[in-house]
């Protein structure tokens, strides 16, 4: 079904946390800090990779795309959420609600695929180190990233465009932002097709990448256990544990949100789940990847050591 003209709908009520008015001010300050950590951490990571040649490797190239995705995703969600925490009239325009729905679906699918690419990159680096740079050259890296964004677009945005239905009043979005599982409850017609499409799309962009990640890390685990060097094992586990932490949090919440029947919807519970993958996880990613990463810490130290010298010239 082609997308219809819904111009009669101008705005919707975005409930957010208005059911807990006493918590809105503390939540505003909390999420403001989280959002600033997200912006600062991810932008700093991108700049660090750009200016330090030691970090210009395939792994950090993919990590920069993940950082950009985190910034873009949360900027679509958090500023409006913060504004509504302070506003007396908690609304969202219909156009921006649709934009959030499309962007959240696209960014979610892209993150799943990029995380899978990062797992495959680690598999190649640890299990086939002699051919790693030959296979994971810059041409291959660019092709993988372009493929990730292209597949994400055609697996998420295009199906949604052709299956979206008119919304029924009252136009109340009992969530922190607009996304597909929530809008399913607001469609006027039968949503069986939309639910099926969501599960099929999630199978391709959630389950398939998750299967590839699991397979990659099983092979990595076997390879690491065969290593004779204790230092080599430590380095491999350190690199992989950060990625596995991000994967566990993101996939756990994403699979629950997008691969369950509509009957299991819970407004308050789903708000907390969405907070993890749309607000909290993007802020944690640069911390997880940098705090325990000797290469990032070393690059940061080198940049800070060069800073006074460049200032003195």
Number of strands: 3
C-alpha termini separation: 64 Å
Question: What sequence of helices (H) and strands (E) makes up the elements?
Answer: EHHEHHHEHHHHH
Runs with pLDDT <50, length 5+?
1-6
Q: What gyration radius follows from the Cα positions, in whole Å? A: 21 Å
Oligomer: single chain
Strand content: under 5%
Helix % is over 70%
- As laid out across the biggest beta sheet, the strand order is 2-1-3
Output mean pLDDT: 84
Overall body shape: globular
Instruction: Describe the main β-sheet briefly.
Output: 3 strands, mixed
Distinct helical segment count: 10
Which structural class do you get from the secondary structure elements? mainly alpha
Protein model, in words:
The protein has 313 residues and is an all-alpha fold. Helix content is 75%, strand content 3%. The chain is globular and about 65 Å long.
């Amino acid at each position: 079904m082609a997308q219809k003209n819904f111009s009669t709908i101008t705005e919707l009520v975005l409930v957010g946390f208005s059911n807990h008015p006493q918590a809105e001010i503390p939540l505003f300050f909390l999420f403001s800090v989280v959002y600033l950590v997200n912006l600062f951490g991810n932008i700093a990571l991108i700049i660090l990779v750009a200016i330090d040649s030691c970090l210009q490797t395939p792994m950090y190239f993919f990590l920069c795309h993940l950082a950009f995705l985190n910034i873009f995703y949360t900027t679509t969600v958090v500023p409006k959420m913060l504004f509504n925490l302070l506003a007396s009239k908690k609304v969202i325009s219909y156009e921006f609600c649709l934009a959030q729905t499309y962007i959240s679906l696209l960014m979610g699918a892209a993150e799943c695929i990029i995380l899978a690419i990062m797992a495959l990159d680690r598999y190649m680096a640890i299990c086939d180190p002699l051919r790693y740079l030959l296979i994971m050259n810059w041409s291959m890296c660019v092709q993988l990233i372009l493929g990730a964004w292209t597949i994400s677009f055609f697996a998420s945005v295009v199906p949604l465009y052709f299956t979206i239905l008119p919304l029924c009043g009252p136009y109340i979005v009992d969530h922190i932002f607009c996304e597909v599982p929530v809008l399913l409850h607001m469609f006027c017609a039968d949503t069986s097709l939309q639910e099926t499409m969501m599960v099929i799309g999630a199978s391709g962009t959630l389950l398939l990448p998750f299967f590839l990640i699991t397979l990659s890390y099983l092979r990595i685990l076997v390879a690491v256990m065969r290593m004779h060097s204790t230092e080599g094992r430590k380095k491999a586990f350190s690199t992989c544990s950060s990625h596995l932490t991000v994967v566990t949090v993101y996939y756990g919440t994403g699979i629950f949100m997008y691969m369950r029947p509509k009957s299991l919807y819970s407004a308050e519970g789903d708000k907390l789940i969405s907070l993890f993958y749309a607000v909290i996880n993007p802020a944690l990613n640069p911390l997880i990847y940098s705090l325990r990463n000797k290469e990032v810490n070393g690059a940061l130290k080198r940049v800070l050591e060069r800073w006074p010298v460049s200032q003195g010239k």
